[in-house]
Design brief:
With 417 residues, the protein is of the alpha+beta class. It contains 4 helices and 22 strands. Strand 17 and strand 18 form a beta hairpin.
Length: 417
Amino acid sequence: MDRIIEKKKWPPKKIAMIGVPTIIVLLILYSIIFGNHDTKLNVQTERLIISTVEHSEFQEFIPVTGTVIPIQTVYIDALEGGRVEEIFVEAGAMVQRGDTILKLENTNLLLDISRQQASMLDQKNSLRNTQLQMDKQKLELYNKLADLDYQINRTRRIYEQNETLLENKIISRQEYEESKDDYEYNVRKRELAILTAKQDSIMMAIQVDQLAQSLKRVEENLRIAKKRLENLTIIAPATGQLTSLNAEYVGEITSAGERIGQIDILDGFKIRAGIDEHYLARIITELQGEFDFGGDTYRLAINKIFPEIVSGRFNVDLEFVDNIPADIRRGQTVHIRLELGDLSEALTLARGGFYQKTGGQWVFVVDPSEAYAAKRDIRLGRKNTEVFEVLAGLEPGERVITSSYDTFGDAERLILK
């Protein structure tokens, strides 16, 4: 007996035809919703520099370039202008304090001295003539007073005699009055002569004092002019090496105040370094640094700061803390590590080319599987020539790509090959 076979609603073929596309769609949706959509880039590991984040001692310092200069330099300026008459020492020679370096000639100064000398002689003659005139006036006064005294004595006797004769009524009163007037006239005339002589004497004394003061000024001017004449001979103000001399040939004209040379005192050396103006507020005296020379390391300390900014930089002078290299010479260049802070513990990351691309705001961190490196935001702080201080975003032991990121474009994940 035949049996009716019921047709299956979900045969395997149908299930396969419906299920497989459904699974594929679900997988696609899952990938779209939950999958990783980062832009990826395949890179060769051997072309990368990978550094490990570490806890270590951190010393903030900046690299500066300095030049060796003498501990002291004495500049030579021409106090007087003139024509170079003779050069006694060439640039580069060693000189002793007081040695003659060169001699100048100044015709105008010689003429000025001649005028001063002539003026001094005129003043001396005027003073001498005035003093002679005073002496002459004194003699004339003495002579005049002698005459007046004679007249006074004579008229007094007549007056006194006439007074007796008038009492005896031998002479008239008119004759008596005339003798009295003559006597009193001579007395007043003597008093006036003395008063006039005093006034003349005072005027003469003032004139003599003025002439003496004028003569003193002329003599002082002449002394200064002769001193200026001495300044035409340039002598070494210190013992050392005449490292430069701008007067190169006889006949050259030098202006007053012009710098014509310098002497370096070679008892010691210091370093003059230029620093970016960005660090001006952080640079103080006694900050220390170090540099390598001849296989040894030497310590330096800032002892002077020049705050003037030229082309975005300012200068500092550094002196040696302990020893000075024996073979160091003027003009040599040294590379100094200038310390800006104290030694401390910090989380650090090696410096590298990545910083030019990211500005220290993000890096590629290598996954522990070392299969890829993912982009991560970080925050960096202080730095020196070797490492950055890590403030946030990284942990000790993590590995970071620190070489240049210029070829990575906008990739957010690097597949390491």
